[in-house]
Amino acid sequence: MADGATVPISGARPAIFIDGNDEARLSGALLGLDITETEAGLYRCAAQFGNWGGAERSGFQHFGRDRLEFGKTLAIKLGDDTLFEGRIGALRASFPEGAPPQIGVLVEDRLQDLRMTRRTRSFASSSIADVVRAVGNDHGLQPDVTLDGPTYPLLAQLNQSDLAFLRELLRRIDGQIWIEAGKLKARGATQRGGELELNWAGHLRSFEVSADLAQQCTALVASGWDVGAKRLAQYRAERSAISADSDGGQSGMEILEAAFGARVETLAHAAPGDAAQAQAQAQSALRLRARRFVVGRGVAETSAQLRVGARLKISGIGPLFEGRYGVTRVTHRFDLQKGLRSEFECNRADIGRAGASA
């Protein structure tokens, strides 16, 4: 999927592929499935299969490790689209009372490599985009990086996994990483994913949403000491920093100031080394807060393009809350009771203005 593309929605029973081979027997035995992705990256899948039938291996169908085996690639497909692909990292079994036995697998995408690699090292005179490219190359992943941000004199990885290190760095500049088509991709949080249209009582099965001022502020200050210039490095991020997140409504920052007055926050643990770093950290932290003003949770028909970073255009819920949301968490879920559906969380920085009507 190209960044920014508008995509359709489809739904069906998922199919299981092992090392590229269509495993109809496993697909038919599928009892439950959870595929989860968050803003932190690392797509995960947990699947359960019925494990009884026939005479082979005393009736246990999938204990031979010929299909379900550590390190094999497992893909979940929906028609021609791939919902998930990763490598098997765990096998588990369940023997419930009065029911057939089950076998399960736990699978992670290629960010697993970064999670399992811990290092201490440093990067001199590098931007965060430079570091992402270097880590991707370390793991044989083609970097596809579009990130803004300053150059840092020194970025240190201190007994951290490669994944934890990148997550920490990307929070400074409002960025995200993920795996797509074998590439390590990095974008600003608002530059990732395509757009889906969801209408309540249509593809959107259910939705609940709230607007809460509890985490909002009217300005946010980051400050530190610029050693080279021997002076204070400080930046105050204000409403202009969230202009790209506006959907034409009224932001939590604006409402907070009108209803309760100015509320200025300071980053307690940030220590930017120069003015550019202070600006990047203050703006990033303010955007994260602003987007948490309106938080929604819903259930929709499943689409391979309903992923973290996608933009949802939600309609049919009235002028106060309808509009565009950014997806922050997705779980594609399947069971024999409710079938296949996608549970998601999303947020946005504004709501409809006072006096708006349908």
Write up this protein.
- The protein has helices at 24-29, 111-115, 128-138, 162-172, 252-260, 275-291, and strands at 15-18, 21-22, 30-38, 44-50, 73-78, 81-94, 102-108, 118-127, 142-146, 151-161, 175-180, 183-188, 195-199, 204-211, 219-226, 231-237, 250-251, 264-266, 294-300, 311-315, 323-335, 339-348, 350-351.
- It is α+β, with helices and mostly antiparallel strands.
- The protein is built from six helices and 23 strands.
- Strands 1, 2, 3, 4, 5, 6, 7, 13, 14, 19, 20, 21 and 22 form a 13-stranded mixed beta sheet that branches. Strands 9-12-11 form a three-stranded mixed beta sheet, with helices on one face.
Concise synopsis of the structure shown:
It is built from six helices and 23 strands. By secondary structure, the chain is α+β, with helices and mostly antiparallel strands. A hairpin with a 2-residue loop joins strand 11 (175-180) and strand 12 (183-188).
Assembly type: single chain
- The number of strands is 23
Main sheet overview:
13 strands, mixed
Shape: globular
Helical percentage: 10-25%
Alpha carbon gyration radius: 23 Å
> Approximately how much beta-strand content do the residues carry?
35-45%
Q: Which spans of ≥5 residues are poorly predicted at pLDDT below 50?
A: 1-11
- The computed structural class is alpha+beta
Distance between the termini: 34 Å
The topology string of helices and strands comes to EEHEEEEEHEHEEHEEEEEEEHEHEEEEE
Number of helices, counting only DSSP H or I runs of 4 residues or more: 6
Mean pLDDT across the residues is 90
